[in-house]
Protein backbone atom coordinates (compact mmCIF):
# COMPACT_ATOMS: atom_id res chain seq x y z
CA UNK A 1 0.00 0.00 0.00
CA UNK A 2 1.43 3.35 -1.05
CA UNK A 3 1.44 6.09 1.57
CA UNK A 4 0.42 9.05 -0.57
CA UNK A 5 -0.36 11.32 2.37
CA UNK A 6 0.09 11.30 6.14
CA UNK A 7 -2.92 12.05 8.30
CA UNK A 8 -1.36 12.50 11.72
CA UNK A 9 -4.64 12.29 13.64
CA UNK A 10 -5.25 8.74 12.38
CA UNK A 11 -2.32 7.39 14.39
CA UNK A 12 -3.73 5.29 17.21
CA UNK A 13 -7.33 5.83 16.06
CA UNK A 14 -9.75 2.96 16.71
CA UNK A 15 -11.09 1.93 13.30
CA UNK A 16 -13.75 -0.67 12.45
CA UNK A 17 -14.16 -1.94 8.87
CA UNK A 18 -16.74 -4.34 7.48
CA UNK A 19 -15.36 -6.67 4.84
CA UNK A 20 -11.85 -5.55 5.72
CA UNK A 21 -9.93 -8.66 4.70
CA UNK A 22 -10.45 -8.87 0.95
CA UNK A 23 -10.77 -6.66 -2.12
CA UNK A 24 -11.05 -2.93 -1.50
CA UNK A 25 -11.62 -3.65 2.19
CA UNK A 26 -8.20 -5.27 2.54
CA UNK A 27 -6.59 -2.24 0.94
CA UNK A 28 -8.45 0.01 3.40
CA UNK A 29 -7.22 -2.06 6.34
CA UNK A 30 -3.67 -1.81 5.00
CA UNK A 31 -4.06 1.93 4.44
CA UNK A 32 -5.19 2.63 8.00
CA UNK A 33 -2.46 0.43 9.45
CA UNK A 34 0.11 2.33 7.38
CA UNK A 35 -1.17 5.48 9.11
CA UNK A 36 -0.68 3.86 12.52
CA UNK A 37 -4.35 3.22 13.30
CA UNK A 38 -5.66 0.35 15.42
CA UNK A 39 -7.83 -1.63 13.02
CA UNK A 40 -10.53 -4.19 13.68
CA UNK A 41 -12.50 -5.74 10.85
CA UNK A 42 -15.18 -8.31 10.22
CA UNK A 43 -15.50 -10.70 7.34
CA UNK A 44 -17.52 -13.84 6.70
CA UNK A 45 -14.61 -15.86 5.29
CA UNK A 46 -11.42 -16.64 7.17
CA UNK A 47 -8.90 -13.80 6.93
CA UNK A 48 -6.10 -15.29 9.04
CA UNK A 49 -3.70 -15.36 6.09
CA UNK A 50 -4.32 -11.69 5.38
CA UNK A 51 -3.69 -10.86 9.05
CA UNK A 52 -0.39 -12.72 8.80
CA UNK A 53 0.54 -10.50 5.85
CA UNK A 54 -0.37 -7.36 7.75
CA UNK A 55 1.64 -8.46 10.78
CA UNK A 56 4.68 -9.15 8.61
CA UNK A 57 4.33 -5.74 6.97
CA UNK A 58 3.40 -3.54 9.92
CA UNK A 59 4.71 -5.42 12.95
CA UNK A 60 1.22 -5.77 14.45
CA UNK A 61 -1.98 -7.57 13.55
CA UNK A 62 -5.39 -6.16 12.82
CA UNK A 63 -8.14 -7.61 14.98
CA UNK A 64 -10.08 -10.03 12.78
CA UNK A 65 -13.56 -11.05 13.95
CA UNK A 66 -15.37 -13.57 11.77
CA UNK A 67 -18.90 -12.40 11.10
CA UNK A 68 -21.72 -12.53 8.59
CA UNK A 69 -22.91 -8.92 8.77
CA UNK A 70 -26.51 -9.96 8.11
CA UNK A 71 -26.40 -11.45 11.63
CA UNK A 72 -27.02 -8.14 13.39
CA UNK A 73 -26.49 -9.48 16.92
CA UNK A 74 -23.10 -10.87 15.93
CA UNK A 75 -22.19 -7.62 14.17
CA UNK A 76 -23.02 -5.62 17.28
CA UNK A 77 -20.99 -7.96 19.50
CA UNK A 78 -17.99 -7.61 17.16
CA UNK A 79 -18.21 -3.82 17.35
CA UNK A 80 -18.30 -4.06 21.15
CA UNK A 81 -15.31 -6.42 21.17
CA UNK A 82 -13.33 -4.09 18.91
CA UNK A 83 -14.09 -1.12 21.16
CA UNK A 84 -12.95 -3.09 24.19
CA UNK A 85 -9.68 -4.00 22.46
CA UNK A 86 -8.82 -0.64 20.89
CA UNK A 87 -10.95 1.93 22.70
CA UNK A 88 -14.14 3.59 21.43
CA UNK A 89 -14.46 3.29 17.66
CA UNK A 90 -14.03 6.72 16.13
CA UNK A 91 -13.93 5.67 12.48
CA UNK A 92 -16.48 3.23 11.04
CA UNK A 93 -16.15 2.13 7.43
CA UNK A 94 -19.22 0.29 6.14
CA UNK A 95 -17.57 -1.35 3.14
CA UNK A 96 -18.94 -4.90 2.87
CA UNK A 97 -21.48 -5.39 0.09
CA UNK A 98 -22.59 -7.92 -2.51
CA UNK A 99 -23.32 -6.81 -6.06
CA UNK A 100 -24.51 -10.19 -7.33
CA UNK A 101 -25.98 -9.76 -10.80
CA UNK A 102 -29.66 -10.52 -11.29
CA UNK A 103 -32.58 -9.62 -13.52
CA UNK A 104 -35.69 -8.04 -12.04
CA UNK A 105 -37.82 -10.95 -13.22
CA UNK A 106 -35.87 -13.55 -11.28
CA UNK A 107 -35.92 -11.72 -7.92
CA UNK A 108 -38.01 -13.37 -5.23
CA UNK A 109 -38.73 -12.14 -1.73
CA UNK A 110 -35.97 -14.21 -0.14
CA UNK A 111 -33.30 -12.82 -2.48
CA UNK A 112 -34.56 -9.26 -2.07
CA UNK A 113 -34.44 -9.48 1.74
CA UNK A 114 -30.95 -11.03 1.66
CA UNK A 115 -29.64 -8.33 -0.68
CA UNK A 116 -31.07 -5.50 1.40
CA UNK A 117 -29.79 -7.12 4.59
CA UNK A 118 -26.18 -7.14 3.44
CA UNK A 119 -26.19 -3.94 1.36
CA UNK A 120 -28.28 -1.60 3.55
CA UNK A 121 -29.65 -3.03 6.80
CA UNK A 122 -26.23 -3.95 8.24
CA UNK A 123 -24.95 -0.45 7.47
CA UNK A 124 -27.63 1.16 9.60
CA UNK A 125 -27.15 -1.10 12.59
CA UNK A 126 -23.38 -0.66 12.48
CA UNK A 127 -23.91 3.12 12.54
CA UNK A 128 -26.31 2.75 15.44
CA UNK A 129 -23.87 0.54 17.35
CA UNK A 130 -20.93 2.98 17.23
CA UNK A 131 -22.90 6.12 18.05
CA UNK A 132 -22.65 5.97 21.85
CA UNK A 133 -18.91 5.33 21.79
CA UNK A 134 -18.28 8.14 19.32
CA UNK A 135 -20.37 10.50 21.42
CA UNK A 136 -18.37 9.60 24.53
CA UNK A 137 -15.11 10.06 22.60
CA UNK A 138 -16.15 13.54 21.49
CA UNK A 139 -16.93 12.67 17.88
CA UNK A 140 -16.09 10.39 15.01
CA UNK A 141 -16.41 9.68 11.32
CA UNK A 142 -18.70 7.18 9.59
CA UNK A 143 -18.07 6.34 5.95
CA UNK A 144 -20.78 4.41 4.13
CA UNK A 145 -19.77 2.86 0.83
CA UNK A 146 -22.30 3.28 -1.94
CA UNK A 147 -21.68 3.16 -5.70
CA UNK A 148 -22.12 5.14 -8.88
CA UNK A 149 -24.22 2.22 -10.19
CA UNK A 150 -27.51 3.75 -9.09
CA UNK A 151 -26.51 7.20 -10.39
CA UNK A 152 -25.92 5.66 -13.81
CA UNK A 153 -29.23 3.79 -13.68
CA UNK A 154 -27.46 0.53 -14.38
CA UNK A 155 -29.52 -2.56 -15.13
CA UNK A 156 -28.67 -6.09 -14.05
CA UNK A 157 -28.68 -5.70 -10.24
CA UNK A 158 -31.69 -3.63 -9.25
CA UNK A 159 -31.70 -4.74 -5.61
CA UNK A 160 -28.10 -3.60 -5.23
CA UNK A 161 -28.69 -0.20 -6.84
CA UNK A 162 -31.80 0.29 -4.70
CA UNK A 163 -29.67 -0.25 -1.59
CA UNK A 164 -27.01 2.13 -2.95
CA UNK A 165 -29.58 4.89 -3.25
CA UNK A 166 -30.92 4.09 0.21
CA UNK A 167 -27.43 4.42 1.69
CA UNK A 168 -27.30 8.02 0.51
CA UNK A 169 -30.65 8.87 2.09
CA UNK A 170 -29.63 7.18 5.33
CA UNK A 171 -26.27 8.98 5.32
CA UNK A 172 -27.90 12.39 5.03
CA UNK A 173 -30.42 11.71 7.79
CA UNK A 174 -27.82 10.29 10.17
CA UNK A 175 -25.49 13.22 9.48
CA UNK A 176 -28.25 15.53 10.68
CA UNK A 177 -29.09 13.39 13.69
CA UNK A 178 -25.52 12.61 14.77
CA UNK A 179 -24.04 16.03 13.99
CA UNK A 180 -24.67 17.64 17.41
CA UNK A 181 -22.35 14.99 18.88
CA UNK A 182 -19.61 15.85 16.35
CA UNK A 183 -20.15 12.60 14.49
CA UNK A 184 -19.71 13.05 10.75
CA UNK A 185 -21.47 10.72 8.31
CA UNK A 186 -20.51 10.65 4.64
CA UNK A 187 -21.03 8.31 1.71
CA UNK A 188 -18.29 7.29 -0.69
CA UNK A 189 -19.25 6.24 -4.21
CA UNK A 190 -16.47 4.48 -6.13
CA UNK A 191 -16.53 3.91 -9.83
CA UNK A 192 -15.34 0.64 -11.35
CA UNK A 193 -12.35 -0.35 -9.24
CA UNK A 194 -10.34 -3.19 -10.74
CA UNK A 195 -10.10 -5.62 -7.86
CA UNK A 196 -9.28 -9.28 -8.43
CA UNK A 197 -13.00 -10.12 -8.20
CA UNK A 198 -13.91 -7.60 -10.88
CA UNK A 199 -11.11 -8.80 -13.16
CA UNK A 200 -12.13 -12.44 -12.71
CA UNK A 201 -15.88 -12.03 -13.16
CA UNK A 202 -16.82 -9.01 -15.26
CA UNK A 203 -13.88 -7.02 -16.60
CA UNK A 204 -13.80 -8.16 -20.22
CA UNK A 205 -11.68 -6.09 -22.61
CA UNK A 206 -14.86 -4.83 -24.28
CA UNK A 207 -16.51 -3.83 -20.98
CA UNK A 208 -13.36 -2.10 -19.77
CA UNK A 209 -12.98 -0.13 -22.99
CA UNK A 210 -16.65 0.91 -22.95
CA UNK A 211 -16.47 2.09 -19.33
CA UNK A 212 -13.19 3.91 -19.83
CA UNK A 213 -14.76 5.82 -22.71
CA UNK A 214 -17.22 7.31 -20.18
CA UNK A 215 -14.48 8.53 -17.84
CA UNK A 216 -13.00 12.01 -18.09
CA UNK A 217 -9.72 10.62 -16.77
CA UNK A 218 -8.53 7.77 -18.97
CA UNK A 219 -6.98 5.58 -16.28
CA UNK A 220 -8.69 2.64 -14.61
CA UNK A 221 -9.37 3.02 -10.90
CA UNK A 222 -7.19 1.07 -8.47
CA UNK A 223 -7.91 0.32 -4.80
CA UNK A 224 -5.41 2.99 -3.73
CA UNK A 225 -7.64 5.67 -5.26
CA UNK A 226 -10.42 4.64 -2.87
CA UNK A 227 -8.14 4.22 0.14
CA UNK A 228 -6.91 7.80 -0.17
CA UNK A 229 -10.50 9.09 -0.16
CA UNK A 230 -11.40 6.98 2.88
CA UNK A 231 -8.40 8.24 4.86
CA UNK A 232 -9.35 11.83 4.03
CA UNK A 233 -12.94 11.33 5.18
CA UNK A 234 -11.82 9.57 8.38
CA UNK A 235 -9.33 12.27 9.33
CA UNK A 236 -9.88 15.70 10.82
CA UNK A 237 -8.75 17.10 7.47
CA UNK A 238 -12.42 16.79 6.48
CA UNK A 239 -13.77 17.87 9.88
CA UNK A 240 -16.51 20.12 8.46
CA UNK A 241 -17.65 17.71 5.77
CA UNK A 242 -20.76 15.67 6.56
CA UNK A 243 -23.93 14.46 4.88
CA UNK A 244 -22.13 14.31 1.54
CA UNK A 245 -21.72 11.70 -1.19
CA UNK A 246 -18.13 11.80 -2.41
CA UNK A 247 -17.64 10.28 -5.87
CA UNK A 248 -14.32 8.75 -6.95
CA UNK A 249 -14.90 7.41 -10.45
CA UNK A 250 -12.57 9.13 -12.89
CA UNK A 251 -15.36 11.44 -13.99
CA UNK A 252 -18.18 9.15 -15.14
CA UNK A 253 -21.00 10.84 -13.25
CA UNK A 254 -21.40 14.43 -12.15
CA UNK A 255 -23.04 15.66 -8.95
CA UNK A 256 -24.50 18.96 -7.85
Automatic annotation (TrEMBL):
Superkingdom of the source species: Bacteria
Molecular function terms, GO-annotated: oxidoreductase activity
Residue span, Ketoreductase domain: 13-205
Matching Gene3D superfamilies: NAD(P)-binding Rossmann-like Domain
InterPro entries noted in UniProt: KR_dom, NAD(P)-bd_dom_sf, SDR_fam
Keyword terms: Oxidoreductase
PANTHER family: OXIDOREDUCTASE, SHORT-CHAIN DEHYDROGENASE/REDUCTASE FAMILY (AFU_ORTHOLOGUE AFUA_5G02870) (PTHR43639), SHORT-CHAIN DEHYDROGENASE_REDUCTASE FAMILY PROTEIN (PTHR43639:SF1)
Family that this chain belongs to: Belongs to the short-chain dehydrogenases/reductases (SDR) family.
Protein name in the entry: NAD(P)-dependent dehydrogenase, short-chain alcohol dehydrogenase family
Organism, scientific name: Marinovum algicola
